[in-house]
Amino acid sequence: MARAPRRRRPRWLLLGALLTLLVLAVNAASGGSDGPSVRLAQLAYLDRVRPAVERSTEQGADLVRVRDEAARLGRAAVGRRLQRVAAEARSVLRLVREADPPESLETSHNLLVATMAIRARAAEQVREALTRALGTDPPEPAVDALVRAGRDLATGDGTYVVFLDSIPRVDGKPAGAMPPSEWVPGGLGWTGGELAAFVHSLRASASLAPVHDLAVALVTTDPAAVGSEGATSVLPAVRSLRLQIVVANVGNEAEKRVPVVATLTADGVSDSARDFVDLAPGQRATVVLGGLRPVAGAASTLSVTIGPVEGEARLEDNTLPMPLVFR
After folding, report:
1. 58, 136, 186, 244, 283 from 198: Cα distances, Å
2. What share of the chain is helix, strand, coil (3-state, %, to 5)?
3. Are 41 and 102 in contact, with CB atoms under 8 Å apart?
4. Is the pTM of this model over 0.85?
């Protein structure tokens, strides 16, 4: 019996298979090239914005330097130098806005633009507030304006940290090395108490009459607070509380052996510690006091006082009260 003839597969099937293999090969090749091309685009963008970030960091240092030297520079020079800082901050903002990010860095780019926009706005706020502080108007509006500017600058620093964290990583490392950038490291020097002492010191330095004026600028606790309940700070229950107290001579007269006293009160019982400090006009100093015994679970009040000294008329910032609870 004769065999049936063997049927050949249609040529179009073979051609289709070959085309499928070709498409898969092309896709594989293009997929392999996407990684390097995206990374190169990211590096090009970061290389473009890095000099702007470095310029911004220098501007922040200039701003703090002018603020710290304001009493020596005088109102006109402070205004000119801070106007230049603000103009340069706006220039950096324009440069960053003009950078064209790859799609993979659009979110990061928006964070960097926000950082520079916050800094440019806050630099102008500082210029206006310091000019006011060196004038003859009441000091409180200038202090409030500086506090707001300090909060904005801290927000700008935080936004830049988020920008750094948003840069895609390759093998656990950012796609491109970007420098750190801070204008107000840790917010130090920009708290309400510190700025109030600073502004009053500026006013006293411009007075020809003797001014005796002391202030408690800042108090930090060890251990630090782990939370808050309204205005009350919650600290861990410990056997002993240690304090770092920043005090300031905001007058224009030297003060010798000024007492600094910390009192912790709970359940009607008080525990105190004290030390003495010498302060030149305009000087700030850190006093460390320890050994205060907290009462666990009880509502407590920490009160830190410097002076007063003879001839001191303004006493509202000589004492800083702090409600605490230890748990």
Report:
1. 23, 15, 18, 19, 10
2. 50, 25, 25
3. yes
4. no
